[in-house]
Design goal:
By secondary structure, the chain is mainly alpha-helical. α1 (about 5-20) packs across α3 and α1 (about 5-20) crosses α4 (about 50-70). The chain starts with 5 loop residues before the first helix and ends with a helix. Helix content is about 60%, strand content about 0%. The protein has one domain.
Amino acid sequence: MTETTFDTKCNILGEVWAEHFSDPKFAKVIEYNNVGLPLAFAVDVQLVESTPRAEAFIEESFLYLLEAFGVAEDTGFDNLDDIVFFALDNQE
């Protein structure tokens, strides 16, 4: 199984933070991940370097995002659209 790379996770979470902050569809994700999302954004745009503790926050945020979309496992996503389309294709 291919898993989403850490850099891509930062990019996806950074997009959620930067582009969907005020989107009510993402309200729960943003509220719960009030540390992980901006941290992922900062790592993605190279404002800060990641640390093991930062990686733990980012990994947890990514798993929460997948869970929020009803995605049971990380099958290797390239962007936020991949997650959304995967979730839509696998709705029960």
